[in-house]
Amino acid sequence: MAKRVCYIHIGPHKTGTTSIQWFLKENRAALLKRGYFVPESGNVHGGHHPLVRGLCGQPVPPHQRDTAARFARAIKDTICEAVVISSEALDGLLINRDCARQFFARMEELNLEPKLVFFPRNQSQLLNSRYAEVVKALQRSEPFEVFVQAEIRHPSFRYAHLIALANGFCSKLIAQPFTEETITRGVVPEFLKAIDIDPVHFHDADVRRNPGAGPFTISVARDVMRSLGSKGRELTWLQASRCGKKLTSYLYEQGLADSGYCGLTTALARHIETEWRLDNDAFAQDAWGRSWTEVFAVDVGREFKPNDFEICPPDWAVRRRLRHTVREMKTMVQEILLDTALGIKAPWNDLRTRNSGSPDNKSTG
User: Fold this and answer.
1) If you classify domain 4-120+159-201 with CATH, what class do you get?
2) pLDDT tens per residue across span 100-143
3) Whether pTM exceeds 0.85
4) How far apart are CA 59 and CA 93, in angstroms?
């Protein structure tokens, strides 16, 4: 039997992954009619995070341990010629050589031809978005510039290794640049074109989800996390997930949710771009036959004005709202930490283990 193509969307984080996964979940039946099978097993809000962890040999919660086996049965039963899975967790997992070997070995066992779909993004904007995401999730609390200096050369921001990864495991890498223009147009149409589907067949291909946090949200989360002291560094994955969701829901209920956080200064953005210039150019030449600056012309060299409250203090009215919100959130977080079911000690619930290979701390089911 000829191998089926398996399109594997691997992220990275903060490149429209939530929008893509929502689209796949909502349009599963329509995609099935076009010969594209989107697995239901290991699907968390559209993302196949437990599935890919299982395929990589990583620990998962007890109720998800049969996810990979159910996926294998579903692949055997489907008549579709293409399979689509999506999880930005793979961006970090595949950096680990053992995880990569296990993952691609499973692809071979299932008679699947893997094609990796990836959306590289200019690192200045990516670092800014990732900082907002991990702080909003109550995972980090240091100032933005400290975060940048700690993570600027993290392997997950290097794209050239993906070319070697794809070549080493006889896979095709489909790289689609994630630019400011992509954000304006919407990432889902670009994803559909990457997997050989015409977006005009879907009326909701311009969906946009998860716009990101703003300066008020970041300040609340950062202050709450700092108030926890050493407890904050010991949060389990379940505790962190619950705290992050509670923060999001509370801010929306109070009409305080905001978006558009920026910690970048123009000088810091230039520093980040200089750090990655050689790596980025090597990747861009291999992937697209052009320089990184040509492909990301609207992103590289941009001017930035930070709105982080630690850099640009807000007026007294905002400071008063901030103090009140932090007090309310601290009480809620303390209640969450009293729930023993969330603090269970297990490899799958260890936040550092789950996030190894990536500076991101996004919940991945």
Assistant:
1) alpha beta
2) 999 999 999 999 999 999 999 999 999 999 999 999 999 999 99
3) yes
4) 12
